[in-house]
Write a structure and sequence with these properties.
By secondary structure, the chain is an all-alpha fold. The chain has one domain. About 55% of the residues lie in helices and about 0% in strands. It has helices spanning about 5-25, 35-45, 55-60, 65-70, 75-90, 105-110, 115-120. α1 (about 5-25) packs across α3 (about 55-60). The longest helix is centred in the first third of the chain and has 24 residues, at about 5-25. The protein starts with a helix and ends in a 10-residue tail after the last helix.
């Protein structure tokens, strides 16, 4: 069970992991997924603790890329669990990160206008 302090700390680091997207897009492409090598290269340029590297992999690589990285033979439940944790803690459950790969349209909207949902305002997803 996470304490409030642990959740706030994770939220702060998740924000940094999420900001990696801008660095990845600048350096590589405006894609929805990136290779594990690209994610690692961008990650090491930040001051994010290494314990959050798997969250970056889960957020920015495909399931198959994540599985290859971790020597898993099939789509891992771990990939979805990490994405679910980011969605629950950082996006208050508003993002559809689970069951998808890479960057989703909801992620783009929430990342672009975070004040709408962090301040308690409503973020409209999938609509106008």
């Amino acid at each position: 069970m996470c304490t409030r302090l642990a959740i706030r700390k994770k939220k702060r680091y998740f924000k940094k992991v999420i900001r990696l997207h801008d660095l990845l897009r600048q350096k590589y492409t405006d894609g929805k997924t990136f290779t594990p090598g690209q994610v690692r290269t961008a990650f090491v340029k930040t001051k994010i603790p290494n314990v959050f590297l798997n969250y970056a992999y889960a957020l920015y690589t495909s399931k198959s890329g994540f599985d290859m990285l971790h020597n898993l033979s099939s789509s891992s439940k771990y990939y979805d669990e990490l994405r679910c944790e980011i969605s629950d803690i950082y996006f208050k459950g508003l993002s559809n990160l689970v069951g998808t790969e890479g960057i989703t349209d909801d992620f783009e909207k929430l990342n672009r206008y975070p004040q709408q949902w962090h301040s308690g305002g409503s973020a409209t997803l999938g609509g106008s």
